[in-house]
Amino acid sequence: MMPDSVATEVRASWRDYLELCKPNVVALMILTSLIGMLLAVPGWVPLHILLLGNLGIALCAGGAAVVNHLVDRKTDTRMARTFQRPIAQGRIAPVEAAIFATLLSLGGFILLFITVNPLTAWLTLAASVGYAFVYTLFLKRATPQNIVIGGIAGAAPPLLGWTAVTGEVHAHALLLVLIIFAWTPPHFWALAIHRRKEYEHADVPMLPVTHGEQYTKFHVFLYTIILILVSLLPYATHMLGWIYLSGALVLGAVYVYYVVRLWLGHQKRAGMDAFWYSIVYLMALFAIMLADHYILGPIVPSAAV
Full-prediction pTM beyond 0.85? Predict the structure, then answer.
């Protein structure tokens, strides 16, 4: 690992700064934010809300991701998956990363506050602080249930998209949050099983490290069942129709196949297979929500919370 004091001697590229923002993670968040926007109204979302709202959410999410890199820079050097990260390798100095995170988060907050609405700005800031500080600084190293408790911050984007359009928190938007909240533990624990030795070496108390792989596999299965049940709530509450129900059941059945294969099988890549399918699952589930919304027609949202 390169010392912090000489980090500025290495010239960072724009790709290093982009990597700090975790663009793949942010892209998935913006997808769910976009769908939250589209589900909130019967027609099309105003263009300035669509563009500026998602840009502001993306900037705040990117700022939180930079803080995650900054806090985890020493841990990152001890894991094969992360040791090449820009701060861990000294290509970007911690103070530069801190300034970058501040500019991103402040810029996103101001953009949302001025061009969208204050509610969305404050909720986005709260979600960013929850991920960057509550989860990364405290929960991640305090409890093996870190991803369960901290998952609420990562589940916020569809709510943020919804409030960006309506200016209100609706029960249907909270259902979208609940789906991602239930999705996060089986998604992340599948990866943690595959990377257990790295987390153990880095002294990060992920569930496979503290309770063993078999215990974690069983909980991946249990949380997947919870997720599938939660995913049926938009149909049960008449938020969405039969197109969504059919898609949710098919996607859920395939997910169960992957987690049972992980739980009962012995394939080395079963954890990563379940992890990658979980991403496909979430993207497809939200895409089917959108198809149902526009094909069958929107249902009037429930009252604001």
Answer: yes
